[in-house]
Structures are given as structure tokens and as C-alpha cells.
Amino acid sequence: MLTLGCRDEVGVVARIAGAIGEMGGWIAEAAYHSDPETGWFFTRQVVRASSLPFGAAELRRRFAPVARQIGADAGWTVTDSADRKSVVLLVSRETHCLHDLLGRFSSGELPVRLAAVIGNHASLGPVARAHGAEFHHVAFPAAGGPRQDKDRAFAELRALVADHDPDAIVLARFMQIIPPELCAEWEGRAINIHHSFLPSFIGALPYHQAHARGVKLIGATCHYVTEHLDAGPIIEQDVIRVDHSDTAPEMVRRGRDIERLVLARGLRWHLEDRVLVHGNRTVVFR
Amino acid sequence: MLTLGCRDEVGVVARIAGAIGEMGGWIAEAAYHSDPETGWFFTRQVVRASSLPFGAAELRRRFAPVARQIGADAGWTVTDSADRKSVVLLVSRETHCLHDLLGRFSSGELPVRLAAVIGNHASLGPVARAHGAEFHHVAFPAAGGPRQDKDRAFAELRALVADHDPDAIVLARFMQIIPPELCAEWEGRAINIHHSFLPSFIGALPYHQAHARGVKLIGATCHYVTEHLDAGPIIEQDVIRVDHSDTAPEMVRRGRDIERLVLARGLRWHLEDRVLVHGNRTVVFR
Amino acid sequence: MLTLGCRDEVGVVARIAGAIGEMGGWIAEAAYHSDPETGWFFTRQVVRASSLPFGAAELRRRFAPVARQIGADAGWTVTDSADRKSVVLLVSRETHCLHDLLGRFSSGELPVRLAAVIGNHASLGPVARAHGAEFHHVAFPAAGGPRQDKDRAFAELRALVADHDPDAIVLARFMQIIPPELCAEWEGRAINIHHSFLPSFIGALPYHQAHARGVKLIGATCHYVTEHLDAGPIIEQDVIRVDHSDTAPEMVRRGRDIERLVLARGLRWHLEDRVLVHGNRTVVFR
Amino acid sequence: MLTLGCRDEVGVVARIAGAIGEMGGWIAEAAYHSDPETGWFFTRQVVRASSLPFGAAELRRRFAPVARQIGADAGWTVTDSADRKSVVLLVSRETHCLHDLLGRFSSGELPVRLAAVIGNHASLGPVARAHGAEFHHVAFPAAGGPRQDKDRAFAELRALVADHDPDAIVLARFMQIIPPELCAEWEGRAINIHHSFLPSFIGALPYHQAHARGVKLIGATCHYVTEHLDAGPIIEQDVIRVDHSDTAPEMVRRGRDIERLVLARGLRWHLEDRVLVHGNRTVVFR
User: Fold this and answer.
1) What percent of chain A shows pLDDT beyond 90?
2) Domain residue spans of chain A
3) Which stretches make up the Formyl transferase N-terminal domain (chains A, B, C, D) (predicted)?
4) Which chains touch C (3 or more CB pairs under 8 A)?
5) Cα separations (Å) of C13 from B161, B285, C28?
């Protein structure tokens, strides 16, 4: 899988496709996006491994000059879809996204290596381990608790995540605001599920905000974590219909279905190198 | 059709159903909503006209004591669905909602009497008249134009609407901010279509705002007009999926489909007495 | 919770609401459906337990004469929502619906007592037991296997289910055609998830059928099991969009998301007494 | 705009992109589809006209040898999006799709040249003409009418359509079964809207069939007309939710919204050369 972003110009598609063709590469999937506003060009190409006489590392080496030529020096990747990516899940009290992802990993639907589950409630250990995952309990203080306890908990979390160096750090309803330096360290790898259709209802209790406003649809948003709360690049969103008979707690219950789906889709696309970030927006080649 | 809102209490359903039953009324449709948070009760009942030996006016007279007993003195209505409601449409340059509604009126799908179309561009006259509607041209000054011209235009608009005393005043992409005193005069009858999924992207150019934020769904909202811009009680909302390849103008084009539908549905429900307003929220008995 | 179906006539709502009101019952939710084609009437009423000086059994006893009067002798139920209903899950190789439901039970989202999981593959035992469920392995022969082995497996299954006498028997992608006598025994309790938008693509490999036809949406259907394959009363359906790039195996993968949701919703409504069967159709009071 | 289908092989993307690049063509949009089952390759490329020193005819001439080389001899097109395509609309009594399309043409949303409206009811003349379209009345006999009248009507219809030689012949709820020889003559240009989610409910009264089966969603399908009734390649489909309270006539009314949208979308994609037919399936590059 090759992904790439560069300034758009005449012949860029030909140069990329030409380079792959010369190596004998059979392009099984190819997606292109040319952004008229920014003048930027993005592509994702899936080359059949069997059509190349060498592996991903050699493809990467051979493609480097082409990338340089078209000015994509930094923003390109070559990965082998046979390499299972690793994931760390961060969870809190709400467990529906955790259960959903564990089920998807167990049934082989999301082809990842689950490196660890880190929760701030010890009770999730047995289920995590039943699915073959390492479990770590990191105790975060309650809201309003001592600052230093919180700092210590984040330091512990940071070290645990660093140990695994995962391809994705999933905040599966983690309910903690990640400090800026951790946002920076995890940039492009930390994925959050927010339980509203952003940019509506940022912050706490979004379903209660939605209920108070009397909206007729509620939603969920999967986005990369940045230091700006609930404002990072959006990967995926979806909504479901509610009506006057849905109380705020009922919205909480019904919203879980859409949170599960939106997070699972967003995570899959991230793991399959389908998401290219550009400024605060994403190109998602589905 | 009977609609009603009152404080909830034991036996209120029995009293209403009992009163209708004693008159011999056959309840063809009945919807109830009991709001646990506010302790308020709402209902909409459709009684078959043929099952009653009298008309809507007499039903209203006989039901009045029941309404008083259950404390619904003010908030109840009895209407005859055979009486066609009247509608005034306000339009500007964007005509897709106008065309859509005219088509629905012409084909008999929305059973209303179209009293008038009022536009601030004279060019729409022929189409409006081809569908049998009166057309009035009211010239609003461009944004930033002289205040007194705007005031004069609103005075003219107000008088024209007042002449028809319509059941619904539809701002079919009217693009003018209605002054507070007119909002008050039209309260509960003026329906706007806003081209975003409110409360996101209030005000001007919502599709451009949506594009800049990188959302993955765009929407439209049909709501009652109040003096607070785009903040009135929501009647209906819906969304469609967009992706990175949709530019802002493309979103404008694609959004029209959802604006048409959301406005047509919201207007229908309003005309069929399916919408009960309670504070800044609506009960919609679909 | 009271549910009821009877011939429609003047005053039936008043009689039911009157009877509940006289007992002092506070109606928290009430839904009615009057079917103009069949002349049949359906209702579901939720009475607050705290408003009654007695329990469900006494309510049932007191309501019986009313039910007789309005001709609902057989078709009515009174249940106590505090009584957790019991569920037996039947599974085969495809485990996504099993994992999804176990997650929902574990997190308390679907308030049921999971009586047992019965699978024709022993491998699911550990997961089922990790969620606190009894697991039984019943070995069904492969397709085309000896008739008597199949009969024996069904006899075993029947006995296991009978032991638990569950309120719902969920075929969570069970992949066996239930024999007519078992359909009869389980009538109104056995719920299947079929992986197509019925009535399209009945029987085997529906996603492959869908792919061959080139449809642009794929779906799933939750229905009661009857002796007619995939033809029982439909409880819930939903769809997701596919396109030309989705191969049949890709549709299989993507369809799982909609199967999970549709089964979970249908099962919830069944357990909350929201589904009333009439002929081969359902009234679903959501 | 270049569209093309050929056998897939190594280097095909490079050859196409290379040829365009050599001419100096700036690829503004590019979509590819490689079908693993049939081993077939499809592409649609939008080249900015301003980047080429010549027009579509010359591009076509220069591209011909490339098309031959990659074996796409027959199945490729080069068109100029500045050339407005022409459309003929066939209508009958149900006019919602007609009104919808006329509104879209009038507001410039669908950039076509409306060549003619042909209806079997004279009453639609004024509206068609108000939108600047030629109107022809062709009187089809009622169902069961004399065969020769029907043949004569079809002969007249065929001649009228042939006069305009349109890019699209839209059966906007035309309600006549097109004879095989006309299906052949109009192949790839005749687009029908069927009021069900095909392949469910082929033929007459699909909403009544849907109601009888008790489905929870109803749909519409836009497809190319072939001699097999409602079985041609599907371009677009969509659905909306219904429930037990929707009678068959109510489904008819509600279904119109989805018919309008599905036909408008399918027609747009056809006119923008986004639909490539392969066997009985379509590749739709949206």
C-alpha cells in the first residue's frame, strides 16, 4: 500500500503509475484526490504483492526518488498489508466500544494485534484477558481530584503506551482530556470517539445538550486527537434519528450503537492507511 | 383533529377518550406523549368525521369543559382536516425549495391552498402564476443597503402576509433576517429551512463552514422562526453523506436535496397539526 | 405493560384507559394503532408500577373482564418490566451477533437473563462462560450429512431449549433450517436474523446473490421464525450502501454491522413487549 | 471526460495516465476500478480543458491508439462536459418526478438541454411549456385496450424520440412496458425509475406488495431499461423507513420522495458519464 500527498501538477499520476508499472506492479486499487482549493494531490494505491519480485522495504527504497521528484519528500508511506498493525485501547466506565472492538478482533474482522487494554477501572481485566489482551489498570482521580495524581496517572499511561509503540491508540470512551504534550507525542495515532455530531455539543454530556436543544438526530464523531478539545481532523461521523419521546438517558443508550459503528469504521480506515490528514481535514479513501 | 397539551396526571387519557367516546367519536389515530422531565402531557387524536353527528365547531364547543377540567384551557385545538390550510411562500434567489413545493401543491400531494408567493426577485412571477399562485415582488435592498429601504420592504411584506392571514408562512430559502416584531406577529406560523444541521453552522454560508471543518455529513433543519437567529424550535432535520471530494459549492448543490425534503416534511407535519411546541422543543406526532 | 389486540370499535380506547384510570394507574407511555384495512385495533400501555397499589398479577386479574368485553379474550398480555426476561442464543460459526449481544448483556444495555448459549461448535464455550452464560455444544452434521444425525441434534436442541423455557430463542446466525414442529413449538419466541433485505435474496448466500444482481444497498432482516423459510413476520430491517468496489466477501464483512444492529433492535423490542403479530405482519410500538 | 473499460493488466493505469500527461493534460479527477472477479478494469478521468491545446475531438483522435493497445477498442468515450446533453422525458399520470426534474433543469442544477416532454395525458402541456420544453401528447390505450392502438402509440413515441436523438430517455413513472425492439434501440440511454427496492416487488403495484409483506423500509430503483422487466443494470437505489401505521396509499405518497431523489441522482450520473455498464451490473464513479 502506497499513500502520498504532494502539490498537484501535470503528469503526477503518470509518474507514480509509471514507476509502479516499470517495477511490474499490478495496481489492484487506486484512489486519487485532487483538491482544487489547496492545489494539493493525494493518492492511495494498492499493489498486489505477488506482482512484485520484492517486498515493501525494497518498494519503498525504489519509490523514494519518484517521491522526491514530485515533491512528496515527507508525506508518503509504503506499508505491507500482511503486517498486522498494533492497537492499544484506552477505556473507562462506558464499555460498549471496548466490547464491540474486542468482538471484532476475536472474530478476525479487524485484522490487528491487540497490544493492550488500559483502563481506569480494574473490573475490565477479565474480559480483556479472555480475548487474549494484556490489561493494565491506571487509576485516574475523580474529576476535581488532586492535580499531581492526575499527572502521575498520565505519566504511567504514557509509559505503558510507549512500551508498545502502537500504530493506533484508541480512546474508546476514555473520558479523560489528554494533556497537550501527550497529544503531540501521539499525533496521527490517537483516535477518539466523541458522542455527538461535531462541531455540535463539544465537551461534557453531549446527549444532554442535544436533548435540551431538541435536535431530531444524534450522532457520533471519530477524530484524531489534537490539543484542541474535540476539534481534531474528523475521520468519520454518523447519526441516528431520535424524537420527542427520547429522554437524555434514552439518547445515551441509543447513541451507543452509532458510537460503536463510527469508531469501528474510523479505526479500520486508519489501520488500512485510508486516512490522509491535510491541515484539519482528512482525505478518506474508502 | 384534536391536539392538546396539559400537566400530566392520573386519568387524563381516560377523560379525553371518554369524552370523545360519549359523543360517539371513532378515534382513527391517537398519539400520546408523557414527558417525565417536565411532567407535561401531549396528545393528538384523529376522530372520523363520519362517526360524529356534528362538525368541528360543535366538537370544539363540547370539548371545552373537558379541556378546562384537565387544565388545558389555552393549549388545545380542534380542526377539520377537510379545511385546506393556506400557505404563503417567501423566496429569494435560491429557488429549489420553491420549485419543489409548487410541484407538491400542483400534484395534490400537499393539500393546501397556496395563497401567495412573495419574492424579492421579479423573475419568479411566471412560474408561480403557472402553478396558479398570486405573485408579489417585494424588493429588499442588498446587504449593507440603506436601513430605511429594508424597513419599508419588511413593512410591505408584513402587510401582504397579513392580507392573507395564512396558516403557514414558509421561508423557502428567503435569506433575510426577520425583525423581532414580525417574529412575534408570525409566532408559531413562520417556518424556516436552514441549510445546516443545527446547532452547527448558524448564520451565513453554513456549507462553507461545514467544508472548512471537514465534516462527513451535511444537513438541513426546518424550524419555527423566533427572534433568535436559527435557534427556534426544531421540527425536522436530516443529513446526507459528503466526503473529501465535495467542494463547498458541491455541498451547496448536494444539500439542496436534503433542504427540499426536510422543508416539505416539516411543512406537512405543521399543516396536519402534528407539531406541538413546548418551550424551545417540539413534540412531532408523525 | 399491557398489550392488546381486538376488533376496533367506538369507545375502545376510553374503556381501556378508563379501566386503568379507575385503578389509579398512571399511564407513562401509550401507543395505539387502528388498522383501517383489517378493522383491527392494537395498543401498548406502560403503567407506572408505583401508581398502582398492587402488582402485575392483580392488574391482570382486574383487567380480564375489560378484555372480555372488548373482545380481546386471547390476545392480550400484562407483564412486569421488572421481571427480567430469559434468552437462549443459538449460534454457529459466524460469531459477530453473539459477541455483540454478549457485550450488550454484560454492559446491562439489554436487561435480560441469558439462560444459555447453544452452539454447534465447541470453541465458543470459553467466551460464553466468560460472560456468565451456560454453554451447550450440540453437534449438527455438515450439509448433506445423515438425516438421523440431524434429527438427533434437533431433538437435543429442543430438549435444551425446553429446559430453560425462554422468552426469546435467538438464532444469531444459526444457519440451520428449523423443522416445522419446532417452529410451531417456538412460535412467537424464535427470532432469526437473515442477512438480506427480505423478501429479496431468500435462502443461502444472500450477499452473493446481492452482488450478482448489482444492488446498491445491502440489508438485514430480523423476523419471527415460521415454517416458511425467511418468510415470517418482519420485526426490523435496515440497509447500508455498497458500490461496485464491494466484492461479495466484502459485502459479507460490511453486512455484519447491519446484522448486529438489526438483531439487537428487534430483540430489544420483542423483550419489551413492543411487537404485536397480526397475520404475517407486525405492529412495532417503538 | 474519458471513460474506459478493458481487461486489467500490469501497467494499464500508467499507459493511460502517461498518454494524457504527454499531451499536457491536467487530471482533475480520476477514478479507477479493478474487478478481481471478472479481471476487468474501468476508469473515468476528468482532464481540465484549459490544460490541453486542443478540444475533445482531437483528444479522442490522439487517444485512439492507446485505447487499441490496451484492448479497449469499443468501450471508451471522450466527451466535453461543456456540451450540454439532451434529455427526453416520458411521463404518465404520476407527475412528481416530472415536476422535480423540471425544477432541477429550470434552476440550472442539472445542466441539460430538455429536448421534449412526451406524455400520454395532454394536461401536462402547460407546465412543460412553462419550463421551456416542447410537449407531445401520445395517447396510449388503457390496459387491455386494442393491441394495434398500443403498437401505433409506440411507433409514434419511437419516431418522436428518434427526432431528438437524445442522450437520455427518462421514463419518469411512464407506466408502459417498453417493447423489446425499442429497448434494443434505446439501449444504454433509457433510464427507468421503479418504485421498489429491486429485486423485490417487480411489476405492478410494488407498494401494495411491500405493504402486504410487512417490510419496514420501502425503496426506489433507477436502472437502465432492458427487455427484461425491471431487471436491467441498477444505477442507484435508496430507501426510507415505514412502519405499521403506513397504509399502502401512504407508502405510495411517501415513496415519491425517494423516487424523485433516486431518479435525479441516477440521471445526473448518467449525464456526467459516471456510469459504466458491465454485463448486468454498473460501475458508478461518484
Assistant:
1) 82
2) 2-78, 85-284
3) 86-264
4) A, B, D
5) 41, 18, 16
What's the CA gap between B171 and B91, in Å, rounded?
6
- The pLDDT, as a whole number, for residue C74 is 66
* Phi, psi values for residue A59, rounded to 5°: -60, -40
For residues B63, B69, B74 and B75, what is the CA-based torsion angle, rounded to 10 degrees?
-80
Q: Do residues C107 and A96 touch, judged by C-beta distance below 8 A? A: yes
Residues 34-63 of A with CB under 8 A from D: 34, 36, 51
pLDDT tens by residue, C39-64? 999 999 999 999 999 999 999 999 99
Torsion C268-C271-C273-C276 (CA) sign? positive
- Cβ distance C36 to B25 less than 8 Å, yes or no, reads no
Cα-flanking dihedrals φ and ψ of residue C29, to 5°?
-145, 140
Query: Which among D13, D21, D30 has the least Cβ separation from residue A10?
Result: D21
SS3 D161: helix
Q: How far apart are CA A227 and CA A233, in angstroms?
A: 11
Q: Which long-range contacts (CB under 8 A, 24 or more apart) does D61-65 make?
A: D62/D19, D62/D23, D63/D2, D63/D19
CA of B68 to nearest chain A CA: how many angstroms apart? Answer: 25
Those residues whose C-beta lies under 8 Å from the C-beta of residue A50, and which sit 6 or more positions away, are: A26
- CA-CA-CA-CA torsion for C163, C169, C173, C178, nearest 10 degrees? 80
Q: What are the pLDDT digits (tens) for C208-224?
A: 999 999 999 999 999 99
Report chain B's mean pLDDT, rounded to a whole number. Answer: 94
pLDDT tens readout for residues C162-201: 999 999 999 999 989 999 999 999 999 999 999 999 999 9
Confidence of residue D6 (pLDDT cuts 50, 70, 90): very high
Q: Are D259 and D266 in contact (CB under 8 A)?
A: no
Which of 3.30.450.20, 1.10.10.10, 3.40.50.170, 3.30.540.10 would CATH assign to domain B85-284?
3.40.50.170
Q: Does residue A217 register a pLDDT over 90?
A: yes
**For residue D45, what is the nearest residue in chain A, using CA coordinates?**
A32
Q: How far is CA B219 from CA B215, B235, C211, in A?
A: 10, 14, 30
pLDDT of the residue at D233: 98
The length of chain C in residues reads: 286
pLDDT at residue C132 in the model: 84
Buried b (16+ CB within 10 A) or exposed e, B132-164: ebbbbebebeeeeeeeeebeebbebbbebbeeb
- Nearest chain D CA: its distance from C285 CA (Å): 9
Using the beta-carbon criterion (under 8 Å), do A28 and D34 form an inter-chain contact?
Answer: yes
Q: CB–CB of C102/C131 below 8 Å?
A: yes
Distance in angstroms (rounded) separating the CA atoms of residues C48 and B10: 10
Find the Cα–Cα–Cα–Cα dihedral C105, C283, B25, C38, rounded to 10°: -160
Torsion, CA A128, CA A134, CA A140, CA A142, rounded to 10: 10
What whole-number distance in Å separates Cα of residue C13 and Cα of residue C2? 13
> B224 pLDDT exceeds 70?
yes
H or E stretch at C279: none
Check: CB of residue B114 under 8 Å from CB of residue B105.
Answer: yes
Per the CB < 8 A criterion, the answer to whether C218 and C239 are in contact is yes
| C2-78 is classed CATH 3.30.70.260 | yes
Please give the grid coordinates belonging to residue D111.
Answer: 445542466
Pinpoint the alpha helices (H) of chain D.
12-22, 56-69, 96-106, 125-130, 147-164, 180-185, 206-213, 248-271
Residue A76: predicted pLDDT: 94
Told to judge if D230 belongs to the known catalytic residues of this protein, a careful annotator would answer: yes
State the residue for C-alpha cell 366538537. B59
Longest dimension (CA), chain C: 62
Instruction: For residues B170-182, give the mean pLDDT.
Output: 95
